[in-house]
Amino acid sequence: MGINEIKRPNCVRKSRYGCRNCKLRKVKCDEARPHCLRCRTYGVQCNFNLDTSDLQPLKERCDRSRKQIQPHCTPLRPTIDNAIWASDGMSFFKLDQYDWDLFNRFRHRTLYSLGGSDIVQIYEDHMLKASFTCPFLFHGTLAVAAVHDRYLTLSPTRRSLRESYHWSQCTTLFKTWLTQKIEEEHKDPIWTTTGTLSILAFASINAVSTDDAWPLGSPDSSDLEWLRLGSGKISLWNLVDPLRPESAFRVMIETLIRMRTPLPIRGTEGASKDLAQLCELNETSTQANNVYFTVVHSLSRVLVIPQEKIALGDALMVSNCMHNKFEDRLRNKDPVALLLLCLWYAKARRVRWWIDFRARFELPAICKYLQRYHSGNIPIQSLIPWGEIMNDV
After folding, report:
1. Cβ atoms 248, 190 nearer than 8 A
2. Is 216 part of a structural domain of the chain?
3. SS3 25
4. pTM to 2 decimal places
5. What sign for the dihedral angle of Cα 116, 177, 201, 272?
6. Is 301 a member of any domain?
7. Which residues contact 240 (CB under 8 A, 6 or more apart)?
8. Chain-wide mean pLDDT for the chain?
9. How many domains does the structure of the chain reveal?
10. Are 166 and 142 in contact (CB under 8 A)?
11. Which domain does 9 fall in, by range?
């Protein structure tokens, strides 16, 4: 029985009083007022009220938020001959009108989808201006705006040449800068770019349907690449220390600390009973003797948080544990590892749009794979989040 043939469980109902945006997009609204979770993730103003038009971008609200955060915004550095010069005074690149439009869409739209007022303040006070002297950050900024364009328009997931170019330039220049001595003024732009590359890695999915997506589709170089970059981000933390006293990211200390919240070193206390049993965790289990240990403990913490209260730090705490031997299990399509990833997607996809970008394809693909090849594994079948899949059908 195919995934589209599965009957909708009785516990999953359509939203009767949801906003018009969710009805137009044919997704289930959580009916949270004044702004539902679906609209926040999608980047549009929720329209329970009649005075808000359908699918209206968050730009107007973002403009008001920006004025509250920084009423006297310092003008960005002017350019000469439409060129952006790097800090060494030699490297430069020119922007055409399309790139300027991308930059403006990032500044007035995409920026506000990256996080709360803290991340907006960091960009307005520091990163937007720093991008004019750090070409790798500017290229990454334009690439993220292009990815966000694709997500909002529900267009095919194939990257445009423009997006691919800016992503390639960001990666190449970033690697070059990392081989040099890192000055204090470049640490924050480098940390910002690690987050930018993580967003781009999440969006690097070449599937246009569930059957094309991993683990069902043909192997692709982008499969699980986002996990490798996640582990690389942990290494860069020690290099630039975003919590150092001079860092602009100290205003995000709560989110950053959540990403590094210590987990138990032994046993099952705090772990979901179902997951602990499935993964054979007991009182003697540790990260060294059980490959699922840290993922089960971190995921168990997130599963009990109400959906509307999950922060990005909570979601990243789990994905940061999915490396080394656990990543090997995923690459080998181990059913238990696939289920844990599946449960994380179902919970984390509402946190940020770039997670949803990949989850919209890989989440149903994982469920379909488990149904097709592990239908006799009752514990796994009972934990598959079919309700989340049905919301998107």
Report:
1. no
2. no
3. helix
4. 0.77
5. negative
6. no
7. 182, 187, 188, 190, 191, 247
8. 82
9. 1
10. yes
11. 1-56
